[in-house]
Specification:
Layout: E1 3-4, H1 7-29, H2 37-40, H3 52-55, H4 63-80, E2 81-82, E3 93-96, H5 97-126, H6 135-158, E4 161-164, E5 178-183, E6 189-195, E7 207-210, H7 214-219, E8 227-232, E9 235-244
Parallel strand pairs: 1-2, 3-4, 6-7
Antiparallel strand pairs: 5-6, 5-9, 8-9
């Protein structure tokens, strides 16, 4: 399925692709001249199961792998992009451009580094003998399942999404908006950023809450001053939206 983007975002991606290609050329001429810090910082944990740092010592990994992953992300967008009006009957995962690139780099490193590391782990574990009582082998095979599941998940997300541009301000609840709500019973207030389904992060400050989570879903399309019910399990609480910006 196509990747939905605006004409403006498409032009931005073309520019970023050119810049990325220049960085790759620069890297091949002089590795020390390229600063990877801003790029590496975009890539977080891999499915919460293995971190970027865990893979840095693998033979298939190099800093250039991240640059190439970014380049391939921009290429994939341009190859699959669609700028026509969205089909209301189709569901698209909403992502910012930065989030898309981060997920695509994760996808590439999972395929090109984590998968090969796991294959070596399985081969080494087999050499220990009796597989029925081989804990190392069982762990490696379980890890293989997690890796392949994450690769499939990332591929599905990055091939069927809508890339959105953050706005400077928001009038209603939608991905990118910062929302402050008040529990009408406890009077406690909570501020969070409404994000797409794959971008939630409860550890960030403020928290990033998915637009498909109960709290996030409740404020989608709503305005400041609206009162909304939030149902989690058997509990139902009423919240007033204090501000959306």
């Amino acid at each position: 399925m196509p990747i939905r983007i605006s004409v403006t975002t498409k032009e931005k991606v073309k520019k970023l692709l050119d810049e990325n290609n220049n960085l790759i050329s620069q890297y091949h001429k002089d590795e020390s001249s390229v600063d990877f810090a801003p790029i590496v910082g975009k890539v977080g944990k891999f499915g919460g199961r293995c971190s970027f740092e865990d893979l840095k010592n693998e033979p298939e990994y190099s800093d250039i792998e991240v640059l190439v992953g970014e380049r391939d992300a921009y290429k994939n967008i341009l190859q699959q992009c669609e700028t026509t009006i969205a089909d209301p009957d189709k569901e698209y995962t909403k992502l910012t451009l930065e989030s898309y690139v981060s997920l695509y780099v994760e996808f590439k490193i999972y395929k090109n580094v984590a998968r090969l590391k796991n294959a070596r782990d399985i081969k080494t574990a087999r050499e220990f003998g009796d597989l029925s009582e081989n804990a190392e082998y069982q762990i490696a095979r379980e890890q293989q399942g997690l890796i392949e599941a994450r690769i499939s998940e990332l591929e599905a997300i990055t091939d069927n999404c809508e890339i959105i541009e953050p706005k400077t301000s928001y009038d209603v609840g939608e991905p990118g908006a910062t929302v402050t709500i008040r529990n009408l019973k406890t009077k406690q207030e909570k501020t969070f950023v409404l994000v797409g389904a794959t971008e939630s992060d409860i550890n960030s400050v403020p928290q990033k809450i998915s637009n498909v989570a109960p709290l996030g879903k409740a404020v989608v399309g709503k305005k400041a001053g609206d009162t909304v019910p939030v149902i989690i399990g058997k509990n139902k609480d009423m919240y007033k939206i204090i501000s959306i910006k």
